[in-house]
Amino acid sequence: MEDEDLVPLIFKNAEDIDQILNDPDESLVYFGMLNHGLATKRFLFLDYKGEEGQEIVNYILDYEFAHDIELGTAEELEVLGEFDYTYLPEKIREVNKLISPKGYGLFTYPTTGDFYALFIAELEHNHAFSQVDLLGDEDIPERERYIQLYI
Question: The pTM is what?
Fold first, then answer.
């Protein structure tokens, strides 16, 4: 499986897919997905220190609205918003406990910096996500070069 194969699994809109795969300004699909995901708010960008406010809950609400689905009740999202954590992966695990029964997961897109790029996708794609080394940089620990699902 190649980087290009992941694009339609993350971006469902045909225009988004076309723009990423045919962007003349991006030589690597990795950067095309990251930049497009951040620009369109398909990816949630968080500092390694975590959230300021309820960014993850707001991201989930936006995703629910855009896709006309419910990943959590208002009460569940309120509890999630107040969840106290030390490290961001702890919060991601809590999100996944909430949304995984609906067939979705909050995934981390690999980055080379001190931030997280998160996105929601269907869990059925988890195996495909874990097959592609997006960074290809041997100086970065192997696990950090792949899309991850914290459970």
Answer: 0.93
